[in-house]
Amino acid sequence: MKRSQALCYLRQLCCSGLGKELVIGEFLRTLPSLVPSVSNVFSGVNEHLRPTYCITDFDGSDMAGTMVEVVSSFYNPERLSRAVSWLKAHPAITSPLILDEHFYSTDMYNVVYSRFDMHHVLWMPTLCVGKPNGILRLYRPKTHKPFDRNDQVLVSQLLPYLTHALRAVNDDRPSYNKEATSGMIIMNAHGRLLFMSPEAKKLLNLAYSPTLTEHHDSEKDVLMARLAQLCRDLKVIYRGQNAAPPNYRHVGANGQFLFRAYWLDQENSDAEGLVGLTIEHREPLKLKVLRCMQQIPLSPTQKDVAMLLSQGVSFEQIGQRLNIKPTTVKDHVGKIYTKLDIHQRDEVLPRLLALAS
C-alpha cells in the first residue's frame, strides 16, 4: 500500500465507528505501510501514564502473563514521573533512556523488547481534553535507523483520528462478512487440549481478548472452559442423553467466532475418543469493505460515498451525513459506478468484495 493510500485508509478506519479494539488492531497492522516499523503497540494509560491495557500487532499470547507482569513492574512511579515531565515539553519520547538510563539492561528490554525485535522507539500520546489517554508505541530493530522528525510528523497527523476512534460510539449490531477464516483444535472427550493448528492458535488469541491486561489469562480460561464443555456435551449426546448442541457462537471485539465440535473417529466415540473443534472467524463487513476500497482509485469522499452505498444508505441520507449537495452525491456515485464498472447500487457491495478474492 502506498503512503498516501495508507494515510487515507487509517483516517477512514478511525472514523468508521467500529469497536476501538478492532480499529486499533487494524491501525497497528497498517501503520508500517506509512511509517516503517515492527511490533507496534497501543497502550491505554491513566492520568499518571501508567498502562492500563495494551493492544499489539503481534502474537504475544505465549508470554502474555509474563509481558503484563514485566510491563507493570517496569512502569514504577519514578519512570512514569520522568515520562510525564518529558512529554510536557516534547511531543514524543524517542529513546527509552529518557525513562531509565540503564534501560537496555532491564527485564523490559531483555525479556520483552529483545523477543519482538524492538530497539528504536517512537512513543507519542493521544490526548483527550488536553490530557493523555493513550500512548502509540512504534518500534524498529537495532539494525534499522532510528525514527526521525519526518516520522514524528506523519504519526502526529494520525493521532487526532486515533483519539476519535477511542471515543466513538460503536455499532452494537454490525454485519459480518460471509467468508470466514478457519482453524482446527483437537481435544479429548473430557475437554483436554491436545493440539491446535497455527491458524486456530491465532484465531483463539483474537477471540478471547484483543488486549493484554491483568485479566488476560482469566479471559482465556473462560473461553477454553466453554470449549471443553462442548466436548462433554458431545459425549452426553452420544450416550443418548439431553445436552446442548455442541456449538458455540462468540462475538468479540475482533468479530464473530463459531466453534463446532464433532467426533474425529465415529468408531471410537467414547470417553477416550478424539474431538475436533473447528473455528470459523468472520470479521465485520465494514472493515472488509474498507480494505477492498484501497484497491481502486477513489477519492477520499468517493470512498465515504461508496461505503454508505454498500450499507444501503439513500442518496439523500448520504448528502446529509457527508454535508454535500444532492447533485454532488449523484456526481460521486456516477464516478464510482464508472471506476467499479457497474451500473446500479445493488452491484456496489458484491463488486467491492470481489476485489478481495
Task: Outline the low-pLDDT stretches.
Answer: none
CATH class of the largest domain: Alpha Beta
CATH topology of the largest domain, which one?
Answer: Beta-Lactamase
State Rg. 23 Å
Order of helices and strands: HHEEHHHEEHEEHHEEEHHHHH
Q: Tell me the structural class.
A: alpha+beta
Lateral strand order in the biggest sheet: 6-5-9-8-7
Task: Describe this structure as you would to a colleague.
- The chain has 357 residues and is α+β, with helices and mostly antiparallel strands.
- It folds into three domains: 3-167, GAF domain (Beta-Lactamase, 2-Layer Sandwich), CATH 3.30.450; 181-285, 2-Layer Sandwich (Beta-Lactamase), CATH 3.30.450.20; 295-354, Arc Repressor Mutant, subunit A (Orthogonal Bundle), CATH 1.10.10.
- The chain has 13 helices and nine strands.
- The chain has a five-stranded antiparallel β-sheet, covered by helices on one side. A four-stranded antiparallel β-sheet has the order 2-1-4-3.
- Strand 5 and strand 6 (193-196) form a beta hairpin.
- Helix 1 (3-14) runs antiparallel to helix 2 (20-30).
- The chain is flat, with a radius of gyration of 23 Å.
